[in-house]
């Protein structure tokens, strides 16, 4: 039903879709404005660079940079008269509006958003497994015939993704809330750090590093995303400003501060997490690890040999010395056993 | 010089100080309003519960809840006439002001702040290694005799900490910037999530989880910290509100959005990090791991056997299925080798 397929744009996402479809035995034709990208993607198993007979194409996946998507979707609808055309853009309403403005009949176009995050943007790290168990949002509309929606579902299924269907407007509101808004908050918070005395940053711990981690993201990409989804992002920013003004005005009142912190607790709990286990019931055991090949392997082998299940873990790097600390979360009844084993085996224990 | 020592308050921090001093061969006397806490701490090797001859005590470490610190410091200065008295409170100016108001001569008191973060608050998880390579801030004053400052330095050194000395006011400004302000931002951001439609949270990825992780912190503790450090916290919040208002007003201008994102990049880079290696030069390889004892151990053993150095790693849990993904960051030239090994050894590769 989706064979042969055409991928237009062979960056990480496009090339990875190609790898997944090719791995499933489908024939995939790769197109890219920069032909060498398509050649690299083909070299990673994403498909072939030879063109397809346009009338025979069943599916076109448009994976070009955000601002180019509407134009390429419209031209693909014209070029491949029998194909379903979908895209992988991270904002859906603006693309849809522009596609409708550019075409007579957009019923063969259905919006898509595979949520596979990565800092890498080229085809060099493409992999068929990129979408495995990731969310792939589809935004079907009343004017999409059933076979169009089914074709898009098949694409996401073959890629191993978990399909979520919602309207373009609902999608854009949701990503504004859970992705675009947190990105801007992280950037604003990190921007404050750029203004404080350098010596003060010696006191920075893991908390501020977590809050500002995504502030290291690529500005060019985020400028495009923000431009495409301004309305729901503005709504979140204005709501934050209201909450922030309320907190500033009430900073002397413990009840008001407590209310903000309690609502924060509630928000964290609302996020879907690992089932059945409350992270705050786990105890961290912190081990010093030499920054050398094999060290982690030997440590985990020791842990495995003792039958201790690791519930979660993270690595912290010492800013001054070439060593790292591994924080291993385990159930409270395993803490003493793990500590004893770590000491006995000669690893450096911190807590 | 610091022997015998008295620990007043045997929660996680107090008991861990006791463990570190005891491990160094010093005699430590434990006191707690709740005697059973002191007994538990003694059971973990933090010291003894028998009282010390007050005139012989050389060092008193006050590790009681924040609001009780000034009173306990003042009474300790009176009770132990020859001892240096220090504390472990996370805000210093307010404590100092109150201690000065409560005592004739505060010259034997020197403020301290060991920055050992943990969600655990009881003595059950106390460990001598809690402070190893952590920052321990001391806030010496002109009226402190040299021997008082030296005694506090010895305490931090014996605990294995890295000493940073600054004034109480500088300390409080620094922790407002790098700890208290990010905490409130995280709480405010998470609080917004509590108000959005539940279904929208299905699209939440790792970014928003990182930004809101510390929003799960204990409100009672943070209400006390905020109350003790309002002025510098307010300064940060007001600066954020100004930046936020500017962003809202200029959300339609790509240059203004770009500026916020660029300044965010700069702030992240300003944080002290692992030396010599730029994290954005690393490539993540994501492996599916069964949530069972030993799985990680076997995986890391396989990696070690192939001589691949892991630069960083993190675990993501699948919200719906009982599986986790391990994201392993390696140098670009090791990616293909690691992927091949993972496939060959039968692990599930995602990207």
TrEMBL record, chains A, B:
Pathway(s) the chain acts in: Amino-acid biosynthesis; L-tyrosine biosynthesis; (4-hydroxyphenyl)pyruvate from prephenate (NAD(+) route): step 1/1
Entries under InterPro entries matching the protein: 6-PGluconate_DH-like_C_sf, ACT-like_dom_sf, ACT_dom, NAD(P)-bd_dom_sf, PDH_C, PDH_N, Preph/Arog_dehydrog, Prephen_DH
A Pfam family this chain is assigned to: PDH_N
Alphabetized UniProt keyword annotations: Amino-acid biosynthesis, Aromatic amino acid biosynthesis, Membrane, NAD, Oxidoreductase, Transmembrane, Transmembrane helix, Tyrosine biosynthesis
GO MF annotation, one: prephenate dehydrogenase (NAD+) activity
Transmembrane feature ranges: 6-28
Occurrences of domain ACT (ranges): 284-351
Domain Prephenate/arogenate dehydrogenase: 3-282
The reaction(s) this protein catalyses: prephenate + NAD(+) = 3-(4-hydroxyphenyl)pyruvate + CO2 + NADH
Enzyme Commission number(s) from the entry: 1.3.1.12
PANTHER family (UniProt xref): PREPHENATE DEHYDROGENASE, PREPHENATE DEHYDROGENASE [NADP(+)]
Protein family according to the UniProt entry: Belongs to the prephenate/arogenate dehydrogenase family.
Name this polypeptide is given: Prephenate dehydrogenase
Protein's organism: Brooklawnia cerclae
